[in-house]
Amino acid sequence: MTWTLHNLDSAAARRAFEIASEYADAALLNHSVRSYAFGAEYARRHGLSYDAELFYVSALLHDLGLTAPFDSHTLPFEEAGGHVARLFTAGLGWDAARRARAEEVIVLHMRDDVTAAEDVESHLLQVGTSADVSGLRVPDFDPAFRTTLLTAYPRLGFGPAFLSLVEDQAARKPDCAAAAYVAGGAAKRIAANPLDA
């Protein structure tokens, strides 16, 4: 494995983990780390080059729009999370273009499929979150990788908890991507995730 179990060794990555730990509960935090790990491992297996720090920071912050302090009554949670990332990375001294990229990666993870050729970091976050939430492509990952990852970052009832969060978003924001996700059978896919078997 080429990713580290805890985090990327950079000041930005360490701070992203600290902030995510302060606002997300353990199940949501572990999901964020696993999303990064699945994406990074997918990139390694497919020979994809990407900005690891940008991807890690985006992955760690991508669901903060689901937490009470950052939940918007008008914006979809991924857009709220994108704004959190933009503010957070401004504090890190990232320039405007890099801040916008962090926001974009987070917003696009809930949009239609983005190919690696179009935007590799957004593609990796889609791969990572889809694997962790609904089990998409999970059988393609080495069993030893999955075991190591789940031992270090256990699920802690993540599936049902996440379903409750997105169902709440769908009920309050019926035009958001979460509403389409719920209407498209999210409950069934989350329940069938082989990571929870």
UniProtKB/TrEMBL annotation:
Q: Where in this chain does the entry annotate a coiled-coil region?
A: none
The HD/PDEase domain sits at: 24-100
At the top level, the lineage of the source is: Bacteria
**Descriptive protein name:** HD domain-containing protein
